[in-house]
Amino acid sequence: MDVRLLLISVLLGLSKTQRDVNKCTKASAQSCGECIQAGEKCGWCTDKNFLKQGEQKSTRCDELDALIKKGCSNASIENPRGRVRVNKNQPVTKRTKDGVKLKLDQIIQIQPQKLTLDLRSGEAQTFHLKFKRAEDYPIDLYYLMDLSYSMKDDLENVKNLGTHLMKKMQTITSDFRIGFGSFVGKTVMPYPCTSDQNCTSPFSYKNVLSLTEDGSQFNNLVSRQKISGNLDQPEGGFDAIMQVAVCTNQIGWRNVTRLLVFSTGTGFHFAGDGKLGDIVLPNDGKCHLQDNMYTRSHYDYPSIAHLVQKLSENNIQTIFAVTEKFQPVYQELKNLIPKSAVGTLSSDSNNVIDLIIDAYNSLSSEVILENSRLPEGVSISYVSHCKNGVSEKGENGRKCSNISIGDEVTFEVAITAKGCPSNGKSETIKIKPLGFTEEVEIVLNFICECECHKDGIPNSPVCHFGNGTLECGACRCNEGRIGRTCECSKDEVRTEDLDANCRMDIDTDICSNNGDCVCGTCECKKRDNPEERYSGKFCECDNFNCDRFNNKLCGGHGRCECRKCICDPNYTGSACDCSLDTSTCLASNKQICNGRGTCECGACKCSDPKFQGPTCEICPTCPGVCTEHKDCVQCRAFGTGDKKDTCEKECSGFDLIAVKKKEDLPQPNDQPYINHCKERDANDCWFFFTYTTKEDSTIEVQMAEDLECPSGPFKNRGYKEATLKLYTRF
Fold first, then answer.
1. Do 536 and 552 touch, CB atoms closer than 8 A?
2. Contact call for residues 215 and 163 (beta carbons, < 8 A)
3. Which PANTHER family does the UniProt record give (predicted)?
4. Which terminal residue of the chain has fewer beta carbons within 10 Å of its beta carbon, N or C?
5. Is residue 78 within 8 Å of residue 36, measured between CB atoms?
6. Residue 713 above 70 pLDDT?
7. Closest CA to 62 of 73, 70, 54
8. Predicted confidence band of residue 529 (pLDDT cuts 50, 70, 90)
9. Looking at residue 63, what is its pLDDT?
10. 545-576, pLDDT tens digit by residue?
11. 341-372: b or e for each residue (b if 16 or more CB lie within 10 Å)?
């Protein structure tokens, strides 16, 4: 064989073995709680008489079918299942109801709002979330502008932005507010402006106007702004973005759609660049506005990851309005910040309103779900069901695109836990659509113990004078104790006196070399194949060393117990290779072995040496049925032929029925097992009959009265008399 093919086959074999590993038996669970955490298919048998001699407590933990095969009843199997409970499920709403505009806290775009999940290890709990964009949803937009000298021309066009943008946004929402802030860079060298142009003193970030419904106020305040400058080209916009995100009260953010328009004509500084000005203190991500001015310019810039975190926490969607030269740079930044967009400013920013509208439409037409940090061992997966029947899995399962106002989409969410948290307590996670304040609260409860655990009896006398808790049919031993009934301390595990109790006699191995002697009791070893096991007081029995037939243990028709096959009903033999079913021996005449043999192990053993075949119906040296019975039929029907003198003695074994013509004889489809015969007599005439063996083994012959003879008068008068005799007989 090709070496590569051999290697592939080995790898495939390993993969199959790995797939077939029984997690339940592999876990060696000592209690019901440990068992159910091993996997979702694992159950624990609580029947106190379930364990056989030599079997360990962990034998109680197995897959459900395996436990039943071992003799554990369904009623004795602990197999708790997880579930999903919906605690708050208000339907999604429209902005107006019965002609009245709803308040902000009455608008619902995601459903349900709260769930409780009971998680069994390895078993996914699935639920659906519905999202629907509400029309006329309020919008807060904060315009953050670079006031370095490179944006001088752009400032002129932004001065009337407030009223113009207000009018444009009224086509989208009747509830719109706008604010304005500006930034330049750090106020330490080498950042400040030293130009002799008409520029204001350098500053890091300034909140010029908190969010307001007054567009003219926006125009008035922005018109008073002057550009500033600095020596290096990248600006300190990240400082400003951080403050806009975290200073919720100062900026005036409401729990509505929050848009941040970041307008610049250059690049940006980020964490680490502060070293240029001997700045090493890291950005702390907190609000530091005093009289609307940023007071921690001597702290380093925030990192991109830090910004992403704060923008997400505060549900802010960012629109980067940048000049064409820096569009590729901000496009890369946009790929790192969820729910952000990039638009290209014209040289003097006169297209900024169209840019904002286009970017808003792009952002609002996509919903992306994100979840809070998951507890250890918990995983989550999403499947999106979007417009036009489009469904996605994986990371794409978190989002739907091209959503219009009023469109409804659903997400299938599956949460799975592997084991239980160390503290065993409930955890709470949240799922929300990025850029929205609404969220779904999910309480996670972990199924760490079986129901029968509650009924445990501490210090039970069954557990060797109170050395354990009798729980779920078994002893859960106290610290330092081991054994099926906690009968031994760990210090007494191996002693000569105890080992003697684990030998069948003095000349045999301890536990037949198939187990370990624990506290004077054999605990049998586990096999790699979980279906194979040792048992018995001395581990002298097993269920895999029985006779085989057709390479199957006990012929596939029984079970192996202590190296002996226990056959299924209708089977016998040392390998259950002998079937007691006789249906395979029925001949075509419904007789067992054609009445010429016996049925042994489902096969015919022919007693008449002339007959052979699977049902003793083949006789190479035998005449045909028609030829064999011709003389008897002829003598019974016409009183002629070779047996006419011995007819009564030799030919009484069948019933004879006369019909007029051969066409009146039974046809082939009238009944099964029928032979049609055509024989010639001594006068060269043909006579016709049928020969049938019926289900009760009786034989029936039907004979046609009319003969087919050569043309001309009969040469033998005896046939005329025979015909008359046939008529009078029937």
1. no
2. yes
3. INTEGRIN BETA (PTHR10082:SF62), INTEGRIN BETA SUBUNIT (PTHR10082)
4. N
5. yes
6. no
7. 70
8. confident
9. 93
10. 999 998 899 999 999 989 899 999 889 999 99
11. bbbbbeeebebbbebbbebbeebbebbbbbbe
